[in-house]
Amino acid sequence: EMEGGRPKSTMLRKMGILRAKEMPEVEVIGVEVPDPIGPHGAKGVGEIGLVPTAGAVANAFAQFDGVRYNKLPIKKRIQK
Questions:
Q1: What are phi and psi of 17, to 5 degrees?
Q2: How far is CA 79 from CA 11, 63, 65, 74, 76, in A?
Q3: How far apart are CA 10 and CA 41, in angstroms?
Q4: Is the pLDDT higher at 10 or at 39?
Q5: Which GO terms describe its molecular function (predicted)?
Q6: Phi then psi dihedrals of residue 74, to 5 deg
Q7: 3-class secondary structure per residue, 11-76
Q8: Quick check: 22 and 30 in contact, CB under 8 A?
């Protein structure tokens, strides 16, 4: 459930998010379709691990200093 654009609960169980051991088995099927732009038809997959990184780092800073960061780059704030 959402309230004001945010989840009412921060507990994963109440959000209905499965735990790792509750996830169904996933079958990965490689589909070989060459990319016309990539060298020798290759496609990149290394970026997949980078997608959540910025959000995870921003949340770590928010846990540390209580400031919610929503723009990159995160710059040092000088407290007076």
A1: -85, 130
A2: 32, 17, 11, 15, 10
A3: 44
A4: 39
A5: oxidoreductase activity
A6: -80, 120
A7: CHHHHCCCCHHHCCCCCCCCCCCCCCCCHHHCCCCHHHHHCCHHHHHHHHHHHHHCCCCCCCCCCC
A8: no
